[in-house]
Amino acid sequence: MSQVLKLALGSIAIAILVLALKLWAAQITGSVALLSDALESIVNLATAIAALIAIRLAARPADHRMPYGYHKAEYFSAVIEGVFIVVAALLIFHQAYQGFIAPEPIDAPVEGIAISMVATAINAFWCMILIRQGRKLLSPALEADGHHLWTDVVSSIGVAVGLVLVVATGQPVLDAALAALVGLNILWSGWKLLSRSVGQLMDVAVPSEQLESIRETISANAGGAIEAHDVRTRQAGKVVFVDFHLVVPGTMTVEDAHVICDRIEAGIKSNFPEAMITIHVEPDDKAKHAGVLVL
Protein backbone atom coordinates (compact mmCIF):
# COMPACT_ATOMS: atom_id res chain seq x y z
CA MET A 1 0.00 0.00 0.00
CA SER A 2 1.40 3.40 -1.02
CA GLN A 3 2.11 6.19 1.45
CA VAL A 4 -0.53 8.38 -0.19
CA LEU A 5 -3.17 5.69 0.22
CA LYS A 6 -2.23 5.12 3.87
CA LEU A 7 -2.62 8.85 4.58
CA ALA A 8 -6.00 8.89 2.82
CA LEU A 9 -7.21 6.00 4.99
CA GLY A 10 -5.85 7.79 8.05
CA SER A 11 -7.88 10.88 7.11
CA ILE A 12 -11.09 8.84 7.19
CA ALA A 13 -10.28 7.46 10.65
CA ILE A 14 -9.38 10.92 11.99
CA ALA A 15 -12.56 12.42 10.48
CA ILE A 16 -14.75 9.81 12.22
CA LEU A 17 -13.05 10.40 15.58
CA VAL A 18 -13.28 14.20 15.34
CA LEU A 19 -16.90 14.06 14.18
CA ALA A 20 -17.86 11.91 17.17
CA LEU A 21 -16.17 14.32 19.59
CA LYS A 22 -17.78 17.42 18.07
CA LEU A 23 -21.26 15.87 18.00
CA TRP A 24 -20.78 14.97 21.66
CA ALA A 25 -19.82 18.56 22.46
CA ALA A 26 -22.83 19.92 20.54
CA GLN A 27 -25.21 17.49 22.24
CA ILE A 28 -24.24 18.28 25.83
CA THR A 29 -24.23 22.06 25.27
CA GLY A 30 -27.07 22.60 22.82
CA SER A 31 -24.83 25.16 21.08
CA VAL A 32 -25.73 26.06 17.49
CA ALA A 33 -22.11 27.11 16.89
CA LEU A 34 -20.77 23.74 18.06
CA LEU A 35 -23.39 21.96 15.96
CA SER A 36 -22.22 23.98 12.95
CA ASP A 37 -18.67 22.95 13.72
CA ALA A 38 -19.81 19.33 13.76
CA LEU A 39 -21.56 19.76 10.41
CA GLU A 40 -18.25 20.84 8.93
CA SER A 41 -16.71 17.64 10.27
CA ILE A 42 -19.34 15.63 8.40
CA VAL A 43 -18.02 17.33 5.26
CA ASN A 44 -14.49 16.41 6.35
CA LEU A 45 -15.50 12.75 6.43
CA ALA A 46 -17.22 12.93 3.03
CA THR A 47 -14.24 14.64 1.42
CA ALA A 48 -11.79 12.18 2.99
CA ILE A 49 -13.73 9.34 1.37
CA ALA A 50 -13.78 11.21 -1.96
CA ALA A 51 -10.02 11.77 -1.70
CA LEU A 52 -9.43 8.05 -1.06
CA ILE A 53 -11.44 7.08 -4.15
CA ALA A 54 -9.62 9.66 -6.30
CA ILE A 55 -6.17 8.60 -5.06
CA ARG A 56 -6.89 4.95 -5.83
CA LEU A 57 -8.09 5.92 -9.31
CA ALA A 58 -5.13 8.25 -9.95
CA ALA A 59 -2.71 5.42 -9.12
CA ARG A 60 -3.98 3.28 -12.00
CA PRO A 61 -1.49 2.92 -14.87
CA ALA A 62 -2.21 4.41 -18.27
CA ASP A 63 -4.26 2.21 -20.61
CA HIS A 64 -5.86 2.41 -24.04
CA ARG A 65 -8.76 4.48 -22.68
CA MET A 66 -6.57 6.88 -20.72
CA PRO A 67 -3.19 6.85 -22.53
CA TYR A 68 -1.92 9.80 -20.47
CA GLY A 69 -2.90 8.18 -17.18
CA TYR A 70 -5.52 8.90 -14.51
CA HIS A 71 -3.55 11.57 -12.66
CA LYS A 72 -6.23 14.26 -12.94
CA ALA A 73 -8.63 12.20 -10.86
CA GLU A 74 -7.20 13.88 -7.75
CA TYR A 75 -8.21 17.30 -9.07
CA PHE A 76 -11.79 16.10 -9.45
CA SER A 77 -11.62 15.06 -5.80
CA ALA A 78 -10.51 18.56 -4.86
CA VAL A 79 -13.43 20.03 -6.83
CA ILE A 80 -15.83 17.68 -5.02
CA GLU A 81 -14.36 18.80 -1.70
CA GLY A 82 -15.03 22.41 -2.64
CA VAL A 83 -18.65 21.60 -3.48
CA PHE A 84 -19.11 19.77 -0.17
CA ILE A 85 -17.68 22.76 1.69
CA VAL A 86 -20.22 25.07 0.03
CA VAL A 87 -23.07 22.69 0.94
CA ALA A 88 -21.86 22.60 4.56
CA ALA A 89 -21.82 26.40 4.65
CA LEU A 90 -25.45 26.51 3.51
CA LEU A 91 -26.45 24.02 6.21
CA ILE A 92 -24.62 26.10 8.81
CA PHE A 93 -26.39 29.28 7.68
CA HIS A 94 -29.69 27.47 8.18
CA GLN A 95 -28.70 26.48 11.73
CA ALA A 96 -27.56 30.03 12.44
CA TYR A 97 -30.89 31.41 11.22
CA GLN A 98 -32.77 29.08 13.59
CA GLY A 99 -30.53 30.27 16.40
CA PHE A 100 -31.31 33.92 15.68
CA ILE A 101 -35.06 33.22 15.68
CA ALA A 102 -35.10 31.20 18.91
CA PRO A 103 -31.83 31.63 20.87
CA GLU A 104 -31.38 29.21 23.76
CA PRO A 105 -28.94 29.25 26.70
CA ILE A 106 -25.90 26.97 26.52
CA ASP A 107 -25.55 24.03 28.90
CA ALA A 108 -22.24 22.66 30.24
CA PRO A 109 -20.09 25.16 28.27
CA VAL A 110 -16.80 24.22 29.95
CA GLU A 111 -17.14 20.52 29.16
CA GLY A 112 -18.33 21.23 25.63
CA ILE A 113 -15.48 23.62 24.86
CA ALA A 114 -12.94 21.18 26.32
CA ILE A 115 -14.20 18.32 24.14
CA SER A 116 -14.22 20.58 21.08
CA MET A 117 -10.63 21.67 21.75
CA VAL A 118 -9.47 18.05 21.97
CA ALA A 119 -11.03 17.42 18.55
CA THR A 120 -9.42 20.62 17.24
CA ALA A 121 -5.98 19.58 18.47
CA ILE A 122 -6.33 16.25 16.65
CA ASN A 123 -7.37 18.05 13.46
CA ALA A 124 -4.49 20.53 13.72
CA PHE A 125 -1.93 17.75 14.08
CA TRP A 126 -3.37 15.79 11.17
CA CYS A 127 -3.76 18.75 8.80
CA MET A 128 -0.07 19.63 9.20
CA ILE A 129 0.82 16.06 8.24
CA LEU A 130 -1.49 16.13 5.20
CA ILE A 131 -0.21 19.46 3.87
CA ARG A 132 3.46 18.53 4.33
CA GLN A 133 3.11 15.02 2.91
CA GLY A 134 0.75 16.17 0.14
CA ARG A 135 3.40 18.59 -1.12
CA LYS A 136 6.18 16.03 -0.70
CA LEU A 137 4.27 13.27 -2.50
CA LEU A 138 2.76 15.67 -5.09
CA SER A 139 -0.79 14.66 -4.14
CA PRO A 140 -3.34 17.45 -4.77
CA ALA A 141 -6.07 15.47 -2.98
CA LEU A 142 -4.06 15.14 0.25
CA GLU A 143 -2.93 18.77 0.20
CA ALA A 144 -6.49 19.99 -0.48
CA ASP A 145 -7.76 17.85 2.39
CA GLY A 146 -5.09 19.35 4.66
CA HIS A 147 -6.01 22.94 3.76
CA HIS A 148 -9.67 22.13 4.30
CA LEU A 149 -8.91 20.73 7.75
CA TRP A 150 -6.98 23.89 8.59
CA THR A 151 -10.09 26.00 7.99
CA ASP A 152 -11.90 23.65 10.36
CA VAL A 153 -9.20 24.23 12.98
CA VAL A 154 -9.48 28.01 12.64
CA SER A 155 -13.28 27.83 12.79
CA SER A 156 -13.22 25.64 15.90
CA ILE A 157 -10.86 27.97 17.74
CA GLY A 158 -13.08 30.92 16.83
CA VAL A 159 -16.15 29.06 18.08
CA ALA A 160 -14.47 28.22 21.39
CA VAL A 161 -13.42 31.83 21.97
CA GLY A 162 -16.89 33.02 21.02
CA LEU A 163 -18.61 30.59 23.37
CA VAL A 164 -16.55 31.98 26.22
CA LEU A 165 -17.95 35.41 25.32
CA VAL A 166 -21.48 33.99 25.14
CA VAL A 167 -21.17 32.63 28.70
CA ALA A 168 -19.50 35.80 29.98
CA THR A 169 -22.11 38.16 28.50
CA GLY A 170 -25.15 35.96 28.91
CA GLN A 171 -26.21 36.69 25.31
CA PRO A 172 -27.20 33.37 23.64
CA VAL A 173 -27.86 35.14 20.32
CA LEU A 174 -24.09 35.45 19.98
CA ASP A 175 -24.02 31.66 19.57
CA ALA A 176 -25.97 31.99 16.31
CA ALA A 177 -23.72 34.83 15.18
CA LEU A 178 -20.70 32.57 15.68
CA ALA A 179 -22.34 29.86 13.59
CA ALA A 180 -22.87 32.37 10.77
CA LEU A 181 -19.20 33.40 10.93
CA VAL A 182 -18.16 29.74 10.73
CA GLY A 183 -20.31 29.39 7.62
CA LEU A 184 -18.73 32.45 5.98
CA ASN A 185 -15.23 31.17 6.76
CA ILE A 186 -15.71 27.74 5.20
CA LEU A 187 -17.61 29.26 2.24
CA TRP A 188 -14.50 31.32 1.45
CA SER A 189 -12.35 28.21 1.88
CA GLY A 190 -14.55 26.28 -0.55
CA TRP A 191 -14.33 29.05 -3.15
CA LYS A 192 -10.51 29.12 -3.00
CA LEU A 193 -10.32 25.34 -3.26
CA LEU A 194 -12.69 25.25 -6.24
CA SER A 195 -10.87 27.99 -8.13
CA ARG A 196 -7.46 26.35 -7.58
CA SER A 197 -8.69 22.89 -8.62
CA VAL A 198 -10.48 24.13 -11.74
CA GLY A 199 -7.25 25.88 -12.76
CA GLN A 200 -5.39 22.58 -12.54
CA LEU A 201 -8.05 20.85 -14.63
CA MET A 202 -7.49 23.55 -17.26
CA ASP A 203 -3.85 22.41 -17.69
CA VAL A 204 -2.20 25.29 -15.85
CA ALA A 205 1.59 25.52 -16.31
CA VAL A 206 4.00 24.47 -13.57
CA PRO A 207 5.14 27.24 -11.17
CA SER A 208 7.62 29.74 -12.65
CA GLU A 209 10.56 28.45 -10.60
CA GLN A 210 9.98 24.90 -11.86
CA LEU A 211 9.64 26.12 -15.44
CA GLU A 212 12.95 27.99 -15.12
CA SER A 213 14.58 24.83 -13.77
CA ILE A 214 13.30 22.86 -16.78
CA ARG A 215 14.57 25.49 -19.22
CA GLU A 216 18.00 25.51 -17.56
CA THR A 217 18.13 21.70 -17.68
CA ILE A 218 17.31 21.73 -21.40
CA SER A 219 20.02 24.31 -22.08
CA ALA A 220 22.65 22.44 -20.04
CA ASN A 221 21.99 19.05 -21.66
CA ALA A 222 21.35 20.00 -25.30
CA GLY A 223 24.99 20.21 -26.42
CA GLY A 224 25.13 19.76 -30.20
CA ALA A 225 21.71 21.33 -30.76
CA ILE A 226 21.09 24.98 -31.65
CA GLU A 227 18.07 26.00 -29.59
CA ALA A 228 14.83 24.86 -28.00
CA HIS A 229 11.69 26.91 -28.45
CA ASP A 230 7.96 26.77 -27.64
CA VAL A 231 8.61 25.11 -24.28
CA ARG A 232 5.25 24.21 -22.73
CA THR A 233 4.38 22.51 -19.45
CA ARG A 234 1.35 21.32 -17.56
CA GLN A 235 0.86 19.34 -14.39
CA ALA A 236 -1.55 16.54 -13.52
CA GLY A 237 -1.07 15.28 -9.98
CA LYS A 238 2.53 14.24 -9.55
CA VAL A 239 3.14 14.04 -13.31
CA VAL A 240 4.68 17.00 -15.14
CA PHE A 241 4.15 17.13 -18.91
CA VAL A 242 6.85 18.92 -20.92
CA ASP A 243 6.96 19.44 -24.67
CA PHE A 244 9.11 21.65 -26.88
CA HIS A 245 10.78 21.96 -30.28
CA LEU A 246 14.52 21.18 -30.46
CA VAL A 247 16.42 22.71 -33.39
CA VAL A 248 19.51 20.78 -34.56
CA PRO A 249 21.90 21.25 -37.50
CA GLY A 250 20.32 20.09 -40.76
CA THR A 251 23.22 17.72 -41.40
CA MET A 252 22.87 15.93 -38.03
CA THR A 253 21.84 12.28 -38.21
CA VAL A 254 18.67 11.01 -36.58
CA GLU A 255 20.76 8.89 -34.24
CA ASP A 256 22.81 11.87 -33.00
CA ALA A 257 19.64 13.96 -32.51
CA HIS A 258 18.13 11.08 -30.56
CA VAL A 259 21.16 10.98 -28.25
CA ILE A 260 20.64 14.66 -27.43
CA CYS A 261 16.95 14.05 -26.73
CA ASP A 262 17.79 11.16 -24.41
CA ARG A 263 20.27 13.35 -22.53
CA ILE A 264 17.71 16.13 -22.08
CA GLU A 265 15.02 13.69 -20.92
CA ALA A 266 17.39 12.17 -18.36
CA GLY A 267 18.24 15.63 -17.05
CA ILE A 268 14.59 16.64 -16.64
CA LYS A 269 13.66 13.33 -15.02
CA SER A 270 16.46 13.75 -12.48
CA ASN A 271 14.44 16.67 -11.06
CA PHE A 272 10.95 15.47 -12.03
CA PRO A 273 10.97 11.64 -11.96
CA GLU A 274 7.36 11.33 -13.12
CA ALA A 275 7.79 13.74 -16.05
CA MET A 276 6.37 12.83 -19.48
CA ILE A 277 8.44 14.57 -22.16
CA THR A 278 7.73 15.13 -25.86
CA ILE A 279 10.46 16.61 -28.08
CA HIS A 280 9.87 17.63 -31.68
CA VAL A 281 13.20 17.72 -33.54
CA GLU A 282 13.54 20.34 -36.30
CA PRO A 283 16.31 21.32 -38.77
CA ASP A 284 18.22 24.60 -38.43
CA ASP A 285 16.04 26.50 -40.91
CA LYS A 286 13.22 26.27 -38.35
CA ALA A 287 15.20 28.20 -35.74
CA LYS A 288 13.31 31.12 -34.16
CA HIS A 289 16.39 32.51 -32.40
CA ALA A 290 14.30 32.70 -29.25
CA GLY A 291 13.40 30.49 -26.32
CA VAL A 292 16.16 28.33 -24.80
CA LEU A 293 19.62 28.84 -26.27
CA VAL A 294 21.98 25.89 -25.86
CA LEU A 295 24.94 26.43 -23.51
What's the CATH superfamily of the largest domain, by name? Answer: Cation efflux protein transmembrane domain
Strand order of the largest sheet: 3-2-1-4
- Uncertain parts: none
- Number of separate helices: 8
- How far do the termini sit from each other? 43 Å
- Number of β-strand runs: 4
> What's the domain count?
2
Percent of residues in β-strands? 5-15%
By CATH, the topology of the largest domain is: Alpha-lytic protease prodomain-like
- Average per-residue pLDDT, rounded, comes to 83
Global structural class: alpha+beta
**Main beta-sheet strand count, sense and barrel state:** 4 strands, mixed
Q: What is the CATH domain class of the largest domain?
A: Mainly Alpha
Question: Quick one: overall form?
Answer: elongated
Give the fraction of residues assigned to helices. Answer: 55-70%
CATH architecture of the largest domain: Up-down Bundle
List the helices and strands in order.
HHHHHHHEEHEE
Q: Rg, please?
A: 25 Å
Family: Belongs to the cation diffusion facilitator (CDF) transporter (TC 2.A.4) family.
Domain Cation efflux protein transmembrane: 11-202
Pfam family, one: ZT_dimer
Main location: membrane
